[in-house]
Amino acid sequence: MSPTPARARAALVLERRRTPRFPLSTVVQYAAGRLHGNGLTSEVSAGGVYFKTDRVLPVGKRIELRLEWPVR
Questions:
Q1: What is the pTM assigned to this prediction?
Q2: CA 56 vs CA 47, 52, 53: distances in Å
Q3: For a Cys-Cys bond, which of 49, 52, 67, 70 suits 28, CB 3.0-4.6 Å?
């Protein structure tokens, strides 16, 4: 199976992130002020976490995360 044209172009773009991202799908709990909930990570790095929730989180606010790390 060959990659899609968009994916092939994306592979040619130079990576500009300072820290590499690693695929990690695990449950995350978040708190942003009075807003609390759960989500699911898809990428983790030393510089950040990409995760999805069923809510829109506030922009520019501090968000506390707790995630289930797969190993100790």
A1: 0.67
A2: 21, 9, 7
A3: 67
